[in-house]
Amino acid sequence: FDINMKTQQHIVAAAASAVIASAPLAHAFVSINGGCSSCSVTTSRHSPLHMAPSYDSIDAQALLELENRISSVIQADPSSPLVLLSPGRHAPSALSMEEAAAQHGMPWDTTIGRTDEENPLLYMPFWEWQLDFMKDSLSNLHPIDCSTLSDTDVTFKENKEKRARIVNQCYASDEYRKIRMTYYDAGDSVQVFNSVWYPDAKYNLPVLGIDILSFNRKKYLAIVDFQPLHEDEDDHATTYEHILKPIKEKYDNLKGRMSSKFYDETQFFSKEMLFARFEDGKIVDDDLLPAFKSYVQTHLKLVQSTPPSTNPQDVQAVFDRQRAYDTYSADRDPAAGLFAAMFGKQWAEDFIYDFLFSLGERSEDGLNLSPPMFGGPPPGAGGKGGPPQKGVNPYAKKNEAQSVPRL
To answer: Which residues sit opposite 274 in a β-bridge?
Structure first.
């Protein structure tokens, strides 16, 4: 039948997106050279999804399903544009949600490290609540592969000698192009929950960043923030600090300020960031957990209430800012030294640059392997703690080798 070139391009793009969304469709194609009948979609850091081989035949049933998918994307009018496909999307994992969530025994209920605590996995309730919230609240939630450019499997890594392990999971939905979750367990020595929610690039909105740590069950650090993509809040599609302020006002213990040792808080941090460095473990359950839940819920409401852009240039501009965020964060990740000490410098570099912040460019100077140094307690906290002196690790236990590793 006769169709113009523009419509042909729409159909090809729609077919590609349909195949990406359905593994059975990809398996139905037959390679032109008689080779792989189950070739998968591949990705690269700065390239869109693409089909590697070419094909000359397709199973009849798969073709019918493909046509149905195309018809749901393209309206009957041949001049209608293709629904905008956002950059930075990853191919779905072959795993189901249940399989992905249960990988490597998650959620864990025992620690690999030494402990004197009844509940040694301090932040596992954060992990479990977030995953349940995602399942209940996000549209078309599905797992995506956790892999690096060198095909390193970063879903799990452990150091049995030092009694430390790390697990990672990645998901995507209609609202978010990537949600990554990390749990680091080293017994009472170190507990970490980290997560970053990247909105689909059609939404010119801040990234949701979560970083919660415990050292020796005596020093605690927490950062939860709507991390802006632009220096001026008004440059986002919707302003948001005014909806965070009432939440933050409830929690005096989460109103601290960070040091400039690693981060410039004027870049990629909002004025309503939850920041806390404290020694009272009760704050985790009494303040941090409910505040964390409120920020996560509010971020999703912000995305859902914001109209997505239909301008390809605007979408690309947002994606470029997410890339800048990744580069900035990778170069300053304060946990780089911890990962290098436990799992090796090369693994740490691949993990940070190719997984945690996979859009970022590798620094010529390599990772910053200094131990974490952050600011003091909230204003008016009564002199406990105070800003750490330059060159001093505020989390190191006196006369003890294992805390946050020094390199």
So the answer is: 224
Residue 24 is predicted with a pLDDT of 45
DSSP assignment of 115-148, as one string?
A: ---SS--TTHHHHHHHHHHHHHHSTT-EEB--B-
Nearest to 3 by CA among 83, 64, 78, 82: 78
- 3-state SS of 367-392 is CCCCCCCCCCCCCCCCCCCCCCCCCC
Residue 248 has phi, psi (to 5 degrees) of -60, -35
The residues, ordered by sequence, that sit 6+ positions from 136 with a Cβ below 8 Å of its Cβ are: none
% pLDDT > 90, the chain: 49
Q: How far apart are CA 66 and CA 14, in angstroms?
A: 9
Predicted confidence (pLDDT) at residue 344 exceeds the cutoff of 60: yes
Q: What residue type is assigned to position 114 of the chain?
A: R
Euclidean distance between CA atoms 278 and 220, whole angstroms: 5
Query: What would the pLDDT profile of 13-31 be if each residue is shown by its tens digit?
Result: 445 444 444 444 444 444 3
Report whether pLDDT(202) > 60. Answer: yes
